[in-house]
Amino acid sequence: MSGPEKPSRGRKVTSFDVARRAGVSRAAVSRAFTPNASVSPETREKVVKAAKELGYRVNYLARGLTTRRSDFVGVVAAGMDNPFRALQIEQITKSLVRRNFRPILLPADQGESADHVMDQLLHYNVSGVLVTSDAPPTALCAEFAAAGVPIVLINKADTIPSVDRVVSDTNAAGKLAAATLVEAGAKQLAVVAAPGPSYTARCRLQAFMGACYALDVEARVIPVEHNSYREGLAVAEALKGVDGVFCINDYMACGLIDGLRRLGGKVPDDVRVIGHDDIPQASWAAYELTTFRQPCDVQAEQAVSLLISRMDDPTTAERFEVTPVSLVRRATV
Amino acid sequence: MSGPEKPSRGRKVTSFDVARRAGVSRAAVSRAFTPNASVSPETREKVVKAAKELGYRVNYLARGLTTRRSDFVGVVAAGMDNPFRALQIEQITKSLVRRNFRPILLPADQGESADHVMDQLLHYNVSGVLVTSDAPPTALCAEFAAAGVPIVLINKADTIPSVDRVVSDTNAAGKLAAATLVEAGAKQLAVVAAPGPSYTARCRLQAFMGACYALDVEARVIPVEHNSYREGLAVAEALKGVDGVFCINDYMACGLIDGLRRLGGKVPDDVRVIGHDDIPQASWAAYELTTFRQPCDVQAEQAVSLLISRMDDPTTAERFEVTPVSLVRRATV
DNA sequence: CTGTTAGCGCGTTCAT
DNA sequence: ATGAACGCGCTAACAG
Predict the structure, then answer these.
(1) What does the alpha-carbon distance between residue A275 and residue A147 come to, in Å, rounded to a whole number?
(2) Model confidence band, residue A4 (pLDDT cutoffs 50, 70, 90)
(3) CB of residue B34 closer than 7 A to nucleic acid strand C?
(4) Do the Cβ atoms of B259 and A285 come closer than 8 Å?
(5) Least confident range of A133-142, A297-306, B218-227, B239-248
(6) Which of B7, B57, B80 sits opposite A86 (nearest CB)?
(7) Bases of chain C within 7 A of a CB of the protein
(8) All domains of chain A, ordered by start, with CATH?
């Protein structure tokens, strides 16, 4: 007979059961499953054997109770309709899992939902929180930091004591966007973005306008409600006379391009368009969007690293890392 | 002075601290935070007050230790580049959170990674597992079921004892796709799909081919590696002579349309295209894709319901729920 | 290297 | 309705 002996007995097998079967103490069992613990190879073997026969697995929840740590990391995110957000989450969770953490994902719809949901996290002794959403207010983040929970923000604004951040290079993007459009012959520039919650969006907008001013070229701001496809589609009409536009993200840029074409406009002949994020759709043949690649994989790695280092030393001053963006030249400019 | 008194003392406040400050026993504190427990309103109030002052929160991990339950539910998913997957995950996590569970998200890349990662779940006493990926092998799922962990599969194949499933109506989709294409005047049909892991994809393919046979119209199967945009784009060349194609998902259909257009083909004049899933991009102006809407929100609700009901009664026979799909007529047919 | 003891933070009897 | 005592599954500290 092979395989676990009690495949589905009602009760869970505990370290006690394993200890008895292996003829050792419970501490020995514990040590057998603890890295760098001092156990003789033979006892370890006995334990492992007994454990396998019984189908035993260490209860990490109980372990966490005594070690006062948990492997859980909260990941709060909103706006998953934006493909970039989906990618971000994938990368973040992968980074986390790779380092042996368990990501608990909290969809933070705009509004107070975020508060309530994040609040729950405090009950689980999470060893950290990663925030990509625009939703969670500064106050809440500060509360976490004060509670001693490491927290790092991705592409968010607020500088909060003890809260680390990783942000893409908004300044470079804004300036280079302006320069690129001008260089391509655009005379009447515009930037479309929601004045709303997205921090990086606002920064890119400012950098863009600043650069336009420096270049002495006319530029205006076209506001929208959300930085989404639908808004991009709808806002195309408001672009009369504009021949070069910086769209604050690709998601909206796709809508903008579709909107321009629907109105009979030619891209890039009539209007040059440049986006941001380099979502998969940006490289789709229907768009061939020139855009800035934002490396969400390295951002994820950085964020997790920051988290870990703060877990090790919670007292360090808050850090701020900026990730470089790179222009991907395609067909829309 | 308002607000928590010990905002960031090193040690966590426990029920003991609250009990002492409120002048009651620890049991009283416990009961104050347990629904339907017998506590007098006054003691409850005292406890709540003291708790607030101290910034106390029940440790759910410790609670789970004695109640032998946890609020965690594993969510394993792969292929997040497909927008439909992203939506699915969003809906699932929202459903879970709404019912007061904590979704722990496991990105299951193809291959053995899934095994290892899911394996970890057993250490956390998860009270259930939701699987949307194509990756996890039957054996692993069975192991969970045997271990007494409720598990429900979304759009997956294998019928396993004690494992519930919710699947979209593949049969209806396949048949209706064929009928719709024929009705639109197509004479030479094709279905493009990967023979690979996706269960629903295979089913839709079969239903489609069956319907074509019944309708006495020529149809062939165009195989691809993955059901992705890139493959769709590349496979357009293989469609010489075809004037009506059922693409197994929208993600690939977008690629297919772009591929056809690149070759100078007109959609729907030369080739009618019909997809599946109704991802956001399907309604983008660049595509206007006729497709089947798969209601991943109700699927999520159903899956969670199944999970819960099995948690309540683990002995029920495995159930199989099919969710209806509906044809969304747009411009590609 | 090993076993013994003493908690981790909490829920639950069982008396009162 | 309330408190005392015990146990959940495990690890840390201390002997030996």
Answers:
(1) 39
(2) very low
(3) yes
(4) yes
(5) A133-142
(6) B80
(7) 1-5, 7-13
(8) 15-58 (1.10.260.40), 71-169+296-325 (3.40.50.2300), 170-293 (3.40.50.2300)
Q: What is the DSSP string of A44-81?
A: HHHHHHHHHHHT----HHHHHHHHT---EEEEEE--TT
HSE (CB half, 13 Å, CA atoms) of B130?
30
Q: How buried is residue B276: exposed, middle or buried, by Cβ count under 10 Å (0-12/13-18/19+)?
A: buried
Residue written as token pair 């003291």: B50
Nucleotides of D under 7 A from a protein CB: 1-5, 7-13
Contact A83 B87 (CB under 8 A): no
Torsion of CA A101, A102, A107, A113, to 10 degrees: -90
Strand D reaches within 7 A of the A40 CB: no
pLDDT at A115 over 90: no
Q: Which two tokens mark A27?
A: 């501490």
Position A273 scores a pLDDT of 98
Q: What is the pLDDT of residue B10?
A: 53
Distance from CA of B53 to the nearest CA of A (A): 14
Contact between the CB of A26 and strand C at under 7 Å? yes
Per CB-CB distance under 8 Å, the chain A contacts of B81 are: 87, 90, 280
Q: Beta carbon of A28 within 7 Å of strand D?
A: no
Q: Residue A35 CA to nucleotide D16 C1', Å?
A: 24
User: Whole-model pTM?
Assistant: 0.94
